[in-house]
Amino acid sequence: MNQTADVIIVGGGIHGCSTALYLALRGYKPLLIEKDYAGRHSSGVNAGGVRQLMRHVAEIPLSIRSMDIWDKIQDLVEDDCGFDSHGQVLVAENNDELAIMRERVDDLNLRGFTHEELIDAQELRRLVPAVAETCPGGVVSRRDGAANPAQTTTAFRRMAEKRGARIIEGVAVTDVKRAGRDWQVTAGDETYTAPILVNAAGAWAGKFAAMLGEPVPLEIVAPMLMITSRVPAFIKPVVILRGRKLSFKQFANGIVMIGGGYLGRAYPETNETDLDWTKLKDSARTVWELFPVMREATIVRAWAGIEAKMPDDIPVLGKSLKHEGLYHQFGFSLHGFQLGPGTGYTMAELIATGHTNISLDAFRPDRFTMHYQETRQ
Amino acid sequence: MSFASKLRTAYDVIVIGAGPAGLAAASTSAEAGLTTLLLDENQAPGGQIYRAITFSPLKNSPVLGQDYEAGINLVSSCEKSGADYVAGCTVWSLDRERVVGISRDGEARLIKAERVIIATGALERPFPIPGWTLPGVMTIGAGQTLLKSSGLIPEGRMVLAGQGPLLWLYAAQVLRAGGTIEAICDTTPLKNYIDAAPYLPSFLLSKYWMKGLGLIREVKRKVKIINGITKLSAEGEGKVKRLVWQAGGRSGAIDADVVMLHQGVVPHVNLAMAAGVKHEWDNVQACFRPVLDESGNTNVHGIMIAGDGAGIGGAESAAERGRLAAIDSVSALHPDALSKVPARDNVRNALAKSMLGRKFLDLLYRPTKPFRIPQDDATIVCRCEEITAGEIRASVAIGATGPNQLKSYRRTGMGPCQGRLCGLTVTELLAYERGKTPDEIGYYRLRSPVKPISLAELASMPQDDVAIKAVVRG
């Protein structure tokens, strides 16, 4: 049986669910198709960082819009999403790093962005008392924080449905083709038709982009995270490093999450991942050196999620340059969670009005092709 | 000298667990000349069934019975076989490339093997009744550990509740050791006797029946038995004071200082699941069981499972399955040495013989639904995070479809026990609430570390070339 919708969204991560919600709020009847369940992959199992700190300049306007939504997340999705706003701190391990950070903050200030603030050793110690005494300072983004990623993605899914989106889970999209001006999407035994298609399929988005004749150099990766046993509360903000890979967050119940982007192995066909303990060892080593208070802790859990990474570490976002009615929203390269709310808002704005107040130029799908690079020069 | 410096960086066969299956597998493999490493978390070999076989204070007394002594032979042939053996170590990781992560005494290592035989055995099925987390309530398995390794019986008035061979065995052992038991609340329903009856003839051919019947008679002479129990709750303030029971229309309460619960054992699946081994729901034993070929091979190349971890079969069949797995490894890695190991057919026959009567026991001692799926919303399911059955039902109502979503809603299964004490209850509870089968609901997605590893141990792991190559190769 053929079924119709206003918009078909492929992928039930934070991005697909957020776009579904904002489209529904604009009066659309979107249909979201998710092959597993909403938040099964990176949107549900990431570190939950809600971070404006250290973003690529092109992403900052989107990140700030998102932050405004995060501040009132309860009003939007009727769930606090486990969001707390204790700031995120970038720690400089030495003076050379601090100098680079100073340059970055000065540059952002010139561009009119003031969310990143340079801090000296004293303020660093006040915010992060347990950090090794050799660290000379850093950068703080005070509105940042962390949320529960699975809770958040599920809340967006639930609210999208409540506002009129239709969500189909556990069925994979197997084919997408043009039928006149419409898109015909096959999933399971059903075919769905809509004039607008959003590719928000995360690690699997590259497959759809290629299927639609708009290939991108997307790498499928499996970033790893570890959780420790409970240790006495010693840190409130999320801490990240510049030189070495580390992100570090203590929850209210005392457990500590250690991440930072070390990659395991991804098996996207079977939804499986393998951990690489030789790299997690490096993570453990960094924590051991930087936070002596953690030396007695034990690692109780570790995992990896499957997601998409682009060569320039910024997403593919906006209108297709090849097809009318096709939109891309993927490739968030290990830092897409915070962007979810703002990007959903922006995509719905783009679909409904044909334009958006935030420039998406840096996120064009053709930016990796020779032709595009030549015209840029 | 550190333990790890005595070990190779790679082995032909690594066997995990030194119970009957692991001991038999390691000795068979090493006798055929394969480089073999036997890893075990206990300080001495024997596993649960032959726990403390080499040092138990009750070693030569009649308390533990003759079967316990059978473990001696397994241990001594393993000692002579030439297998490397590490006691008291933690196996915290196993992946598809057969890299095994181990730690001991603050040191961690990754060691690679051509074959890994998982022989991690069984654990007790969760028994979530109201009050099961009160101090003074423990499992019969824990009680038996205490008895075997220290010769101790808990002090005070003791009540046993539940069902299964271990319950009767432990009761007999307690009585032989001079202990007393106030009462036994037997939860075996009448229906199970009817279900099991067709398999009685094959049970009568096994050696269990004489022994089992003897044990039950021995216990019944000295202890009050309450049959047909349909509801149990442990009560008390800060400590258990009494066990309250219902049996159909009858009910009562027994004052107790110690309540010991048991409703059978189930395969210990954590390590195998973390390595990507496929499991399926066994509806008779009401648990997940790995999908295996007849030698014990899993869907992951080179990873095998032997013993009760492959499906509950008891100590004798565990040893035979251990031998079969080792013979299969020898035939794959060093076929010239097959003459040094027992003939496969003989081992298969011995295995079949040891499994006689198993179906009868499975059906007779299949726990009833109310004791697997808590009916009372206030009953705690996840002990680590103190999550009740009611909270899990509420999570289903807001969209939790399986155990992995439940983890992020309620943190069930995320505590130190890593789901060992709640996993089956959560799967069956969700299946029941959602009208699905346990296979459709699935189990917690398990990952290494399957046992905690200290940050210091992990941080100090050396950059070992062989192990790294092994990991990167995939």
Q: What does this protein look like?
A:
The complex is a heterodimer of chains A (377) and B (474). Chain A is α/β, with parallel strands linked by helices. Chain A folds into two domains: 2-66 and 149-217 and 313-376, FAD/NAD(P)-binding domain, CATH 3.50.50; 85-144 and 220-309, 2-Layer Sandwich (D-Amino Acid Oxidase, Chain A, domain 2), CATH 3.30.9. In chain A, 29% of the residues lie in helices and 27% in strands. An eight-stranded mixed sheet of chain A has the order 6-7-5-16-17-18-15-21. In chain A, strands 9-3-2-13-24-23 form a six-stranded mixed sheet, sandwiched between helices. In chain A, strands 1-12-11-10 form a four-stranded mixed sheet, with no helix packed on it. In chain A, helix 1 (14-25) runs parallel beside helix 7 (149-162), helix 1 (14-25) packs across helix 10 and helix 3 (60-70) crosses helix 10. The longest helix of chain A has 16 residues, at 95-110. Chain A is globular and about 65 Å long. Chain A starts with a strand and ends with a helix. Chain B is an alpha/beta fold and 474 residues long. Chain B folds into three domains: 4-123 and 266-357, FAD/NAD(P)-binding domain (3-Layer(bba) Sandwich), CATH 3.50.50.60; 126-263, FAD/NAD(P)-binding domain, CATH 3.50.50.60; 370-441, BFD-like [2Fe-2S]-binding domain (Arc Repressor Mutant, subunit A), CATH 1.10.10.1100. In chain B, the strands form six sheets. In chain B, strands 1, 2, 3, 4, 5, 6 and 19 form a seven-stranded mixed sheet that branches. In chain B, strands 8-15-9-10-11 form a five-stranded parallel sheet. In chain B, a hairpin with a 4-residue loop joins strand 17 (279-282) and strand 18. In chain B, helix 1 runs parallel beside helix 9 and helix 5 runs antiparallel to helix 11 (358-364). Chain B starts with 9 loop residues before the first strand and ends with a helix. In chain B, 53% of the residues are buried. The model of chain B is unreliable at 465-474 (pLDDT under 50). Chain A binds chain B through residues 37, 39-40, 44, 148-151, 154, 157-158, 169, 227-229, 265, 272, 274-278, 280-281, 284-285, 287-288, 294-303, and chain B through 93, 95-97, 99, 101, 110, 276, 398-399, 401-402, 404-405, 407-409, 414-416, 418, 445, 447-449, 452-456, 458-459, 461, 463, 467-468, 471-472, 474. Strand 21 (298-304) of chain A pairs antiparallel with strand 22 of chain B.
